[in-house]
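batch job 7 of whatever, protein = Sodium:solute symporter
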Amino acid sequence: MDSFTLFNWALLLMTFGLMLYLGYLSSRRMHKDDAAGFLVAGRSLGAFVGAGTIVATGFSGWGFMGSPGVTYQFGAIEVLGNFFFAPAMVIAVLYFARFMQRKAIEMGSNTIPEYIGQSHGGGAMGRVLQAVSAIITVVLLLVFLTSQIKAVGLLGASWLGIELDQSAMLMVGVIILYTMLGGLAAVAWTDTIMVWGMALAAVIIVIQMLTTIDVNEWESGLNAIDPELLNPTNGAHYGASRGNVFLVLPYAFLFAAVLPFMAIRFLAFKPEVKLHKVGIYVAVLGGLLSLIPLVGLYVRVKLPGLADPDSAMPVYLEQFMHPAIQGVITLFIIFAMKSTANSLLHTVASSVSHDLRLAIFAERQPSARRVLGLNRAAVLVLGVLALLMMLYAPPFMLSWLGILGTGTLLASLIGPVFISTFWQGSAWGALAAMLGGFFTSGYMMLFADVGWLIGPLTGCVVSSALYIGVTLVGRSHRAHARHPNASFPDHPA
């Protein structure tokens, strides 16, 4: 083991200690009998921490590992698509978070599946909705978590000089420990520290690239390899049309506003938090992190023959950075991937230990201390399960697997989470929307060659139509049942 590898290990162990300490502090601040503290951080997140955890979770493994690989493969169109995430997150914070936050406080919702069930009437049907949305969340986010674990494992293995399975077990083990200790509060505080390291890494990377290659040389080199890299005639992985890339903006907005591991942050804000401050922090951090995919174009010019596009970032760090700087930046990138992995793990664990428990065993009222123990046990079990899924999964492209999980979940939940903010549907409409979105997006992502966004967005359209249509049909039938012989005017008062 050389001196730089020892330096990397020292950095890693030091930051592991910091994360575990933050988890310990969060557990001390969280009452031992307070399950809501574990699930929504006691609704204690301020503007700085709230923005930090939103951006860290949104711009993570796919941002530092997936998107450079996609850019290497498909060109600058991925750089443009990546830039839409920052404004989309700002819009979600400014125009969606407050409504959802207030409604969740009124109902006492501590998870997104619980929010869905309570906002659609509660009762037996509300528990069905809570259970179905929880099951869909667990299945699809475990898929996404698998990609995150692979990403952090690959980078950690090359950085520390160990095998993939050893690296993945090390990283996931620490995530499990501090998430078990402090719940969402620990996740949010560690995310906030991570995201500023991520932003610093982005600045260093951009400076290195711009000082080692002339922009004109960069352009001519890419055009010599393939003119499609800078001037595409189609949308590449986004679909047949170049304009499909602009669909990233609505997709990214819904990503931030609807997906449970993102939207749960809105429920965890302090009631008095100033959302415009959150938006400013999100804009600054998101703008910096949007520069990362340029690495893919840089490596494509310097090393055009990579067999695995997803290795673009590790190869860039290994060949174009001083080993000491490489170690620090790699640590920040590992931060990025862990920031989403911990959020996914917390969300799927909450869906099992909280949502499925309430939906199936509503009549049972265990002690709050026992509930907290169940929450923590779920983190451990599902963390180990996700690790095993990664170790035995067939080869896949990181970004594609991430969109399969998040895009299909987005299509499933858009109706009962987003459409319901301005048009309240029925419980049956919510159920139809979740199932319709799930099967539509899942089928198109797996079996239809239509691009990475068309499937999820088509699922969103189908889900929204079912949410509204089934609700209207149900209301019409109920009105007819109450007044079978009545004649209704076209425009009732």
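notes: The two ends are 80 Å apart (CA to CA).
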